[in-house]
Specification:
- The complex is a heterodimer.
- In chain A, about 40% of the residues lie in helices and about 10% in strands.
- Chain A contains 19 helices and ten strands.
- Chain A has a four-stranded parallel sheet.
- In chain A, α9 (about 200-215) crosses α19 (about 420-430) and α17 (about 375-385) crosses α18 (about 400-410).
- Chain A is globular, with a radius of gyration of 24 Å.
- Chain A starts with about 20 loop residues before the first strand and ends with a helix.
- Chain B is α/β, with parallel strands linked by helices.
- Helix content of chain B is about 30%, strand content about 30%.
- Classes of the chains: A alpha/beta, B alpha/beta.
- The interface of A and B includes residues 42 and 92 of A.
Chain lengths: ~425, ~350
């Protein structure tokens, strides 16, 4: 039987393409076939849907009944053509999710699951399918590099492990390291600093602020220094389960080596990792995000916040502190405690907060995402902050400071400052000194 | 002179249930059934499992038949039709004629319950071209029920089907055909059949093409969700417009509406989810008793929301799909309501006399 017209192949090499083609003033440069993609669905191969459903964690993709509530809240769909419903339908029509670019766009922000009546769980599906893609070696290069750097250096930034506590030299206050406590232990607080707050210049700014705040509050704390490694949870969500397990095993061993009361983390991803994932591996100790830790100490903190921060501030809820773990109030309590600061909420806040684009591996897929979306999620979010006439976009996730600062620049909104809540507290504490 | 018995026309689920209940409260019943056996559509059309509940249709319905047949208060007339009726509530005189015997016998009844049911839409009347009478592998829901009852769900040539497509709303929700109503049960029955196919033939893929899935109440979580989640039945929004023979297979053509793309996919068996229309008996008996019919010729229920079993004639009640598309749950409920209302009429009249 002759093949249907639509299926008949054109020899690609026989097609001459011009780099630039403008017809009647309309730029139609690009691949000759981009406007004439396959129209007719010739087959419903449910092979890939079954393959996803067979994975541990992948079964719920097939539960979608197409209501599209997810599409309405999916941060990616606003800048691209993507949502769990669309993934289900594409897979149902025979698109191979394991090799599709769709696989790498999800930031696991969880807004879809929040509204999904069928509990189609992309937070389980994505890591499950990605794990298989990782095993098959089908991973975008930049993500692969982050995996390799994490494996090699213990952090995705590719920085030397032994310099993990180097930032503390500029703290001007004591930042004790567990291994060096000698007879001074045990520490009340084990502060897990995290990779970006240890190495990224803007992350370090927040760490320095935290060190000063902890000291001012008289907190008996210590960090792990070079014994600390990346929590690995974002790598797990991006498909590197093996790497996650390796890091978790290491970190749990180090946590258990010392005596301490509470584990305080700088980042929401680490908060999620230690509370929800490490607990599956037997680590069950109290963990607090720094905003929770400080909000509990507002009584002591408030008198220290002497200097007024006269600014209109809006707050971006981190997906992994808010939706994933239900903490919306602690960051706001801290912001409200700062004298002079006017807190304004963006339309998308709290449960429906937008995503910065960094979660689920997005942090290491910037160029890839750029190729498949109209703008970065961070750029979309920065525009929203500007729309609400904020002077400062306050954050409390180490992924976000650099993402939003870059986005403020790239969208021409340089006037918008991006500051971690730690930095804002520190400003109020230090006043003109800093 | 008031008659103490109730005449029930139709020996399907509605008529059987009403007869059983009336006998239970001591009211004599004459049950007239046109077919040679009781049980109605589930038996005559050889349904496999009941929707909902998945219980075996034959044994469940036969339990009802057994209870009625065994009751000394129920006078069952098989192979018989009501050809004439006169009188009024409390004193109907109804002529019951045996098949092929013109004379007939007059039966007195204080009240009447019409339980004459529905017939399946004839897919030869469709506005689309599904080829029911051309292609042996284009079948209806009731054909599929019979095949599953025989535990042989194969193509006409004996091959195992790789893919089965269900096309919803055939003969329903269609202004051109004249059936603007939803037949109410077909979404559930297609999904139930798809589950049964998947259970018997795990390698066979089932696709349900729909306009809206109408799985009201618990059908949603008892049928629709398990069909999709446990049995991996694939639901595709957008109705197939035509079926074309292509080699040994059937090419379905339509639009995949959520993808916004045309569909041309080969299938092995196409099941048409034919809807409900008033049965011949319903149409004829409405005339015999002078009860009003709606524009679709189902028996009209004047105050349907709060009195779903009354007709335009006092003392004549309706139960089941004679009044419009009904599932079994609705049918059983109506049968109970019709039975008690018929009994109440008789007592009122008898007491007054």
């Amino acid at each position: 039987m002759p093949r249907p017209l639509e299926e008949q192949k054109v020899i690609q090499s026989a097609v001459k393409e011009k780099d630039e083609l403008i017809v009647d003033g309309m730029d139609i440069s690009g691949h000759w076939n981009r406007m004439f993609g396959q129209r007719v669905i010739f087959d419903y191969s449910v092979e890939y849907l079954e393959k996803v459903a067979a994975l541990d964690g992948g079964e719920s993709l097939g539960w979608c009944y197409g209501c599209a509530k997810c599409t309405g809240v999916c941060p990616i769909d606003i800048v691209g053509d993507y949502s769990p419903r669309k993934i289900h339908r594409r897979t149902q029509t025979g698109v191979d999710l394991f090799t599709s670019e769709d696989l790498w766009l999800c930031t696991t922000c969880m807004n879809c699951l929040r509204v999904c009546p069928k509990e189609v769980d992309m937070i389980q599906i994505m890591p499950a399918v990605r794990e298989r893609a990782v095993l098959d070696g089908s991973v975008p290069d930049e993500l692969q590099k982050a995996f390799e750097d994490t494996a090699k250096f213990g952090n995705p930034l590719g920085q030397p492990q032994r310099k993990r506590a180097a930032w503390a030299k500029n703290a001007e206050v004591p930042v004790p390291i567990m291994a060096c406590l000698n007879g001074d232990g045990p520490a009340d607080v084990l502060w897990y600093v995290g990779s970006y707050p240890s190495y990224h210049p803007r992350g370090i700014d927040a760490s320095l602020a935290a060190a000063r705040i902890f000291n001012a509050l008289g907190v008996n704390f210590a960090i792990l220094g070079k014994e600390e490694k990346d929590d690995g949870d974002t790598q797990r969500l991006a498909g590197e389960t093996g790497l996650f397990e390796m890091l978790a095993e290491h970190n749990i061993e180090v946590f258990n080596k010392y005596e301490w009361g509470t584990l305080v983390v700088t980042g929401p991803h680490e908060y999620n990792a230690f509370n929800n994932e490490y607990s599956k591996l037997g680590f069950e100790r109290p963990v607090l995000h720094y905003t929770q830790f400080l909000a509990e100490r507002l009584h002591d903190l408030k008198p220290l916040l002497k200097e007024s921060v006269e600014a209109r501030v809006t707050f971006h809820d981190p997906c992994y502190l808010g939706r994933h773990n239900g903490e919306y109030d602690a960051p706001r309590e801290l912001l409200r405690a700062i004298p002079g600061l006017e807190l304004v909420e963006m339309g998308r806040c709290r449960e429906n907060g937008y995503c910065c684009g960094g979660g689920g591996g997005g942090m290491w897929l910037d160029s890839f995402t750029q190729d498949h979306t109209r703008m970065r999620l961070s750029e979309r979010r920065v525009r929203e902050a500007v729309e609400y006439e904020a002077d400062i976009l306050a954050v409390c996730c180490p992924f976000e400071v650099s993402r939003f600062e870059d986005a403020a620049k790239s969208t021409g909104n340089d006037q918008l400052k991006v500051l971690d809540i730690l930095e804002l507290l520190d400003h109020s504490m230090q006043g003109g000194k800093r | 002179m008031a008659a103490e018995s109730v005449l029930i026309v139709g020996g399907g689920p509605a008529g059987l249930e009403a007869a059983r209940l009336l006998a239970d409260i001591g009211t004599p019943v004459t049950l007239v059934e046109k077919r040679a056996e009781l049980g109605g559509m589930p038996i005559a059309e050889r349904y496999a499992a009941l929707t909902h509940g998945f219980r075996d249709a034959e044994s469940m319905i036969n339990n009802m038949v057994g209870a009625v047949s065994a009751s000394p208060l129920v006078d069952v007339r098989l192979g018989a039709s009501v050809v004439e009726a006169e009188g009024e509530a409390g004193a109907f005189r109804v002529t019951v004629a045996k098949e092929g015997n013109g004379a007939g016998e007059v039966v007195e009844a204080g009240a009447v319950i019409l339980a004459t049911g529905f017939q399946h839409f004839d897919p030869g009347r469709e506005t689309q071209t599904y080829g029911y009478y051309e292609y042996p592998d284009v079948i209806t829901l009731s054909d599929a029920e019979g095949m599953l009852k025989d535990d042989v769900f194969l193509k006409a040539n004996g091959d195992k089907p790789e893919r089965v497509a269900f096309i919803q709303c055939v003969g329903s929700r269609d202004r051109q055909i004249g059936n603007e109503y939803c037949s109410k049960v077909c979404c559930g029955i297609s999904s139930k059949l798809a589950i049964e196919v998947r259970e018997r033939l795990p390698d066979t893929k089932c696709f349900i093409f729909y306009i809206d899935m109408r799985m009201y109440g618990f059908w949603e979580n008892e049928i629709y969700w398990p069909a999709q989640e446990k049995h991996h039945v694939q639901y595709v929004k957008g109705i197939v417009t035509e079926v074309i023979k292509k080699g040994e297979r059937l090419l379905i053509r339509g639009e995949d509406t959520t993808m916004g793309r045309p569909v041309e996919v080969p299938m092995d068996i196409v099941v048409l989810a034919v809807g409900m229309e008033p049965s011949r008996g319903t149409r004829d008996l409405a005339k015999v008793f002078g009860v009003k019919q709606n524009q679709y010729r189902f028996i009209e229920v004047p105050h349907d929301a709060l009195d779903p079993v009354a007709t335009s004639v006092p003392g004549v009640f309706v139960a089941g799909a004679a009044a419009g598309p009904k599932d079994l749950d609705d049918t059983m409920g109506m049968a109970g309501a019709a039975a008690i209302k018929a009994a109440a009429w008789i007592r009122k009249v008898v007491t007054a006399a």
